[in-house]
Specification:
72 residues; mainly alpha
């Protein structure tokens, strides 16, 4: 009356499959986020002067912008 493999091995296979599909995508998103942060830092050098804002104001605005992107 064997109905198939035990649940533990089936769950382990499912987790392994998820890891193989999701982790590369998450890694790609992480690299893109790093590049985006770096670009914003370079843009701040000239953008702060053009917008007449201080570095503290830029940090507040950029932090708010990043948080809003996380919840979209």
């Amino acid at each position: 009356m064997d109905t198939g493999p035990p649940m533990a091995s089936t769950a382990a296979k499912a987790i392994q499959k998820i890891r193989l599909r999701i982790l590369p995508f998450v890694l790609l998103l992480f690299v893109v986020a790093l590049i985006d942060r770096n670009n914003a830092g370079f843009a701040a050098l000239t953008m702060n002067k053009e917008l007449a804002i201080t570095s503290q104001q830029f940090g507040l605005l950029f932090g708010d912008f990043r948080c809003r992107l996380l919840y979209i």
